[in-house]
Amino acid sequence: MKKTILFSLLATFSLSVHAEDGWQHWFKDGLGDAQVVSGQATYEVKDGILTGTTVEGSGNTFLAKGPFKDFELQFEVKVDDELNSGVQVRSHLAKEGDPAPEGSKNGKPLPDGRLFGPQCEIAINGTAGDFYDEARRGTWWSILTQTEAVRTDEAKAAFKKGEWNHYRIVVQGDHYQSFVNGVKTADFTQPNDPEGYIGFQVHGIKKGTGPYKVQWKEVKFKTL
């Protein structure tokens, strides 16, 4: 009987370890190797929660890690009602002297250090989980790839105002998917960004407003 119980416990332990195999847990004790780019918003980690706080006069700011190719990213997020946010994936840092990004909406070069590319939206206005082409095409990838059918009423209502929301983002090859609280919110293919940075956004705010914050916890990442 004792041997049976021991083997059962060992098997359970083995399955538990295997389930977590390959996962990296980010921001448990600090920012690690992540770098703040594009703006002056502040980021801090306390009790395993990453908090980004707006700074008046700053543009969009990102806490960037990478670059990465194929991956799965999961996290819990909560955002102030007055603020929208997002997580960049396979995004790029502009360098001084670079031409305007291919597909750029206005055809103008970006400032040195500006992060641009696909962003999975965090917002209470029904756009959560859709991907926006930040600082480049300036529109939604669901429109660009004609996959708006994924943006169902259920998808638009998946993000819960004032609560922690679970995100799952999977990017493999040309295929991008997102799920908010278990509901599919994006599913499209596009070949333009085979590798790039992940960036946790604090959006810029209007003068005389804020400060506002966005918080992430239980952030985990796995290379595919």
Structure description:
- Helices cover 12% and strands 42% of the residues.
- It is built from three helices and 14 strands.
- Strands 1, 3, 4, 6, 10, 11, 12 and 14 form an eight-stranded antiparallel β-sheet that branches.
- A hairpin with a 2-residue loop joins strand 10 and strand 11 (175-180).
- The chain is globular and about 40 Å long.
- Mean pLDDT is 93; it is low at 1-19.
Question: What's this, in brief?
Answer:
The protein has 224 residues and is mainly beta.
Strand residues, percent:
35-45%
Helix content: 10-25%
In DSSP terms (H or I, runs of 4 or more residues), the helix count works out at 3
Total tally of structural domains: 1
Do you know the CATH topology? Jelly Rolls
Question: At the fourth CATH level, what is the homologous superfamily?
Answer: Exo-inulinase, domain 1
Rg is 19 Å
End-to-end separation in angstroms reads: 41 Å
Question: What string, H for helix and E for strand, traces the elements in order?
Answer: HEEEEEEEEEHHEEEEE
Mean pLDDT: 93
Low-confidence stretches: 1-19
Q: CATH class, anyone?
A: Mainly Beta
CATH architecture: Sandwich
What's the count of strands? 14
| Main beta sheet strand tally, sense and closure | 8 strands, antiparallel
- Global outline: globular
Quickly give the structural class: mainly beta
Organism: Prosthecobacter debontii
Region (Disordered): 90-112
Signal peptide: 1-19
Domain 3-keto-alpha-glucoside-1,2-lyase/3-keto-2-hydroxy-glucal hydratase: 22-222
